[in-house]
Amino acid sequence: MASHSIFEIVVLVAAVALYFLPALIADRRGRHDLMVLALFNAVLGWTGLGWVLALCWAFQANPPKNLGAETKDRQRRAGMGVFSRLLSERIAARAARIAERERPSH
Which residue windows are transmembrane per the record (predicted)? Predict the structure, then answer.
């Protein structure tokens, strides 16, 4: 009788470990959003599709820690690139006008 209950405990632990396998993988991979993934796994893992999605999520690379700031920085750099290009074009056009005025006319 005691061996029967030990077997049941082992099966239960294995089933829980399999159910939370995506969360365990995410923890092992050091995901920053582990708690969200584990909650998703706990709530929707029973559907099968939720478990597969959680598993795929667990294998994804970590998102940047500060995605908003990184996006703003990228936009700022892109804006500065456009500004620099327009400024260079304006300087070149002005230099061409000055050169045209200074060219002797025949």
Answer: 6-26, 38-60
Shared domain for 50 and 20, answered yes or no, is yes
**Residue 17: helix, strand or coil by DSSP?**
helix
Tell me the CA distances in angstroms from 71 to 36, 64, 96, one per residue in order.
Answer: 22, 10, 38
Is it the case that residue 59 has pLDDT exceeding 80? Answer: yes
How far apart are alpha carbons 42 and 98 in whole angstroms? 72
The total number of structural domains in the chain stands at: 2
Q: 31, 2 in Cβ contact below 8 A? A: no
Q: Provide the residue range defining the domain that includes 43.
A: 1-63
Instruction: Compute the distance between CA of residue 48 and CA of residue 52 in angstroms, rounded to an integer.
Output: 6
Tokens (6 digits) for 97: 């006008």
